[in-house]
Amino acid sequence: MIQEDEIKSKIDLDLWGRIFRYALSHKRLLIPLAASATVLAVIDTFFPIATKWAIDVIQGSGVIKDLIPVGVFYLSLSAGLAFCVFVFIHCAGGISHHIAHDIKRDCFKRLQELEFAFYDKQPTGWLISRLTADCDRLSRILAWGFLDVLWGCLYVLAMSVAMLLLNWKLALIVLATLPVLVALSLFFQRRMLFTSRQIRKHNARITASYGEGIAGVKTTKTLGREVENLGEFEGMSTDMYQASVRRAFLSAIYLPLVMLVGSLGSGLALWYGGVNLLQEAISLGTLVAFISYAGNLFQPINQIAMILAEIQGAQAAGERVMSLLATKPEIVDSPEVLEKIANHQALQSKQPIRRTLHSLAEAKQGQPNPLSPAPTLANDGHPNRIDEIQFKDVTFSYNQKETVLKNFNLRVKRGQTIALVGPSGGGKSTIVSLVSRFYEPTGGGVLIDGIDYRQRSLAWLQSQLGIVLQTPHLFNGTVLENIRYGRLDATPEEIREAANLVNAHDFVMNLEDGYDTVIGEGGARLSTGERQLISFARALLADPQIFIMDEATSSIDTETEKLIQDGMQRVFEGRISFVIAHRLSTIRSADQILVIKQGEIEEQGTHQELLARRGHYYELYTNQFRNEGVNRAMEAG
Amino acid sequence: MLQEKPTPASKGSGLPLIWPLTNGFRALYAWAAGALFLTTLFQFLIPLIGSATIDFVLTSEKTEQSPLLTLIIDFLGGPETVRANLWIPAIAMAVFAALGGLFNYSQKLSAAKASDGICKRLKDQLYDHIQRLSNRYLDQAQTGDLVQRCTSDIETTRIFLAAHVVEIGRSIILVIAALPIMLSLHVGLTAVSMALIPFIVAYSYFYIKQVKHVFTEVDEAEGRLTAVVQENITGIRVVRAFNRHDFEIEKFSTPNREYRETSIRLIRLMSWFWSISDIACLVQIGAALFAGAYLALQGSISVGTLFAFLALLNLVLWPVRMIGRILTDLGKTTVALGRINEILTQPFETQADEVSITPDRPAVGRIAVRDVTFSHADTPTLQDISLEVEPGETLAILGPSGAGKTTLMHLLLRFYDCDSGRIELDGQDICSLDRAYLRAQFGVVLQEPFLFSRSIRHNIAFGASTASEADIERAARVACIHETIQNFSEGYETEIGERGITLSGGQRQRLAISRALLGEPPILLLDDALSAVDNETESAIIKALQDRRGKQTTIVIAHRLSTLSHADKIVVLEGGRITQHGTHQSLTKEEGLYQRLWNIQTQLEAALAEPEEANRL
């Protein structure tokens, strides 16, 4: 998504100060950059002096030998300039990419810490462009803007000093054009930036229009809307054309105007300087130098104005990035919990030898069991084992207004499976998100063996979860890497075993390179069902005490569903499981079925009990049964 | 892929394609070139005034005077007048600067009008062309690839036209204008002043060409970084579910670092490039300065001439040195233009010489399919299909996926033409009818309805922009979506798609149904249009559609018996052939797919009547 923002009229110095701190940490490059900008400004000022010197030699002594020092001077200026150019490109480019790297690193880190509530509010595309386009833009402006402003100011200053030293009256006349140049540049650069932005905006609309036109071409044809579509498109391309011509119009006026002011300066210098020359108050060389200076003044002014306009334009990007960095995660361990974790760690580190020995022993066995008993204590010093999860009067709302869950009560014991059914938006997903502590209850509490989970370690709880989502998101990489995501230190044998338990092993072995098959972006080379099997194995590998299946079987074929169904029976053994589903087979075997409607438990019981009640569950069930029967007959047909 | 299949018409590729594009804009370009030439002349005159003043007024040496400078001083009123009134050259400078500025303005504006105008026309052509391409082409083309051509290839062309053409033109004109002036001042000095320019251009061309691959590497590194970010953010729920942030941060740090390293490598190469190119230019100016000074000392040129040379050289040198860089980009433009042209040379769906009839009244809605056979990409999808639908009747088509149901519908709409057999509308072969007329007779809901990112109102009225408020609401009511829309905070004005709300599958289908109903076309085609709608809503929609029975011919493709059973005729399509046809009554008695489905339903109902049985389900 392309987000354009208005140009801020004021430059927020505090904001840019904070952003500039990123540059300050690269002093190794920043200092040579500043030095080269300074030297460059001085060298640029000396070039007309070299010409003046040469002319004065011709006019004065007229001896060729006297030109030699001028030549040496000129050549050393050239060498100096080239060196400065080399240094500043090197340093400014370097700083810019270092800053981009650092800001991106910090933003990325922060994004990993923020909770689901944050992601609910921000569209994915928006976040991606914060992390890419905004960061790149800021870093570029920071490095090159710093260089240009420094060089521009010093160059104007150096030229002024040189002119004042040569002839202060003539200098004042030439410098009189300076305010005009500044005013013109500021006026036009801002407007040009603004139209450039509009062009980009129109361009984005055109791109979107092409995308839609191509993807929806069949619909357009059935509705016979080709002519109107083209008319709308032409409206957009005309807008873009007009904005482009307007941009050209502005720059077509701006540059000649600035040049005109420059020529006026040169003319004034020629006139006043010429009179002086005739009175022999100045030399011809000095006059020529002045004419050059008058013509050169606009360059640095133009650069500075351009950068200032860009800074104004990028301010919104700066604000967005800085506010992202300033966003603090809301669900974190409380200070008490942090203290407990620290205490526990201190206790653990007192027995380092035992731990090493233990893991050595494990390694010697060669094939550690993936379902090996976990340590008895969690990292916060409480027992690691979870025997019961209880929702106690839980109330939850996403935005204070709509209550999604009202006084919800539920007790689940180890080894039980809870199926959640009901209409979408009823609160099923909220319940499992609350179990996972991706959100926290706004009222009441979730208790783990009697202790509110806000008094337990967040990292510990979440490492006890195994979650399979409706759309199995896989990462680009091999099958092995994707399953290993569940437990990073798992051995290939353990991974195979997990895959076997969920019936994924057979299909993986049929892939081209087995477990080493690269599955493409988002797992594009696999079917949805195959992806789901892998994500199931991934969840199992973590050996979680709490297993969550969130609509995991809703978008896959019957064949795979059977495999998953079969795996579930084995996997759920000895764990606390929550299943959101609408496939009958998945629901039927649960210990408890909860029909959730509008944030409340509408019906609760086993399959038989609920069917006998002939209520909501009965209705849902029979509908689903009919649909599944039809689908099966079709697939067979 | 598209580029593997060049059509005979797309043989022309690359830069020769530019010339026809400029058609209609050539006068503007010519004017821009003329104005540029005048601008350049005025720009050159300004330092020459300085030179003339220096030579004739401010210095009194008797050196060989160039005729050009004599001409200028005479124009200004002669040495004596100028000496007494030094404001004259100052004013002349300003006036010439103003005139030069005026032409400069005109040149830039006309060049922009020409290049942006060409781009606009190209974009419009492309858009128009894509909409009118045949479905066979569109099916085998990839959406992403087409969009890519329409955006980044157009952008490459735009940069070429707006920036590169102008820059190249400017450099050529600068050199053409400067050469005679310099030659008239001093031939030898001209040679010295221009000596390095070809080398500077060649240097920048070959250097950039050499390091081009690093630019590509930077692009690739950036792409990898973006891919990681994208993957992470779209999968953030998985990351959190497995508590893997440290792992992800580690995973991100590698491409982030690599992008930085490659970029810095490119920067290093570019800092060499710019500093060497700068020093070459300065050496060129230095050479002119010292050769000129030497000549001036010898008295063979005046100080004014030297001054003029330096000023002219400064004007010419800096733009010209960019040429080499621009030339390296020409290859990119050639490829982009070729890719755009490949689309533009594809034939339209409707050939220009096609003769077709456009009846002046809407169709009655009698459809006859006679012995139609059709194969898609060499695999037969439909074989010997024959069926008839009377006006106002409802025909239902049932069949497993891949049976050819959607293809049959596409044939009715003439997205494709059948290989043999014919399809008639009101007794007229549809191949003889105007496509626009034919399609206007159908209200269509495609299998995966496409909605546009605009308001709900616009989406319903997409095909009929003149529809009234009441019409839109009526169509929405029939499709049972009116209530839902009313519940959105902005009602019918609610935006959908990227910038608005996301609709559920069922809501999308219902919206598409109301879109198809609007304007009451004689025939309604519903391709699995109720699959994501819940049962209650489905029966309500079917009931509403039945109320219109007799007014509208309806063809329904569906999987659920509940959608089909009310139809006047039912056809079972399996493997591209019609295996059964009849009515609900007759098909339930006949062995086949329909009966099997029916049995499942009745069995369920029977089973549920007995609680004991139900428990075993």
Written description of the protein model:
The complex is a heterodimer of chains A (637) and B (617). By secondary structure, chain A is an alpha/beta fold. Chain A has a domain at 13-326: ABC transporter transmembrane region fold, CATH 1.20.1560. In chain A, 65% of the residues lie in helices and 9% in strands. In chain A, a hairpin with a 5-residue loop joins strand 1 and strand 2 (403-413). The longest helix of chain A has 53 residues, at 226-278. Chain A is elongated, with a radius of gyration of 36 Å. The two termini of chain A are 44 Å apart. The model of chain A is unreliable at 352-373 (pLDDT under 50). Chain B has 617 residues and is of the alpha/beta class. Among the domains of chain B are: 10-186 and 335-349, Up-down Bundle (ABC transporter transmembrane region fold), CATH 1.20.1560; 452-520, Rossmann fold, CATH 3.40.50. Helix content of chain B is 63%, strand content 10%. Chain B has 24 helices and 10 strands. In chain B, helix 20 links the parallel strand 7 and strand 8. In chain B, helix 2 (26-58) crosses helix 4, helix 2 packs antiparallel against helix 12 (303-321) and helix 9 packs antiparallel against helix 11. The two termini of chain B are 50 Å apart. Mean pLDDT of chain B is 85; it is low at 1-12. Chains A and B meet through helix 2, helix 3, helix 5, helix 7 and helix 8 of A and helix 2, helix 5, helix 7, helix 9 and helix 10 of B.
